[in-house]
Amino acid sequence: MDQTHRAGQSQATRPFNPSTMKNALLRWCQIKLENYPVQITNFSSCWADGMAFCALIHRFVPNSFDFNKLDPKNRRENLELAFRVAEQNGIVPLLEVDDMLLMGDRPDWKCIFTYVQSFYKAFKDHL
């Protein structure tokens, strides 16, 4: 592709670069979860206790469980609940609870990012 053609290419037709995709997905999560008591500033530590996953699935399937009864200290239970409800709603289980627990307070952002993309694909058309 020559320079002239590339220069004339519109911003809308350029493919997303990984950083843009990451930031766009992070922003989507922040918007969708603005009414939940979770802080989403990254795809690592913010997801470690399972509360962000629970909030995300609850946002789209609110009758599946009582979010207000969850405790951030119950990491295993939160992750099990979120992953189970997500799978029941068509989201492929890309993460394992035990793996999340082994990763501790700083799970691999690429793992979280990839899994959260599945939520986006499943629920992007929901208000």
UniProtKB/TrEMBL annotation:
Highest taxon in the source lineage: Eukaryota
The UniProt record lists the keyword Phosphoprotein: yes
Domain Calponin-homology (CH) positions: 19-124
Gene3D superfamilies, per database record: Calponin-like domain (1.10.418.10)
Entry keywords, A to Z: Coiled coil, Phosphoprotein
Statement: the UniProt record of this protein carries the keyword Coiled coil: yes
Protein's recorded name: Calponin-homology (CH) domain-containing protein
Organism name: Elaeophora elaphi
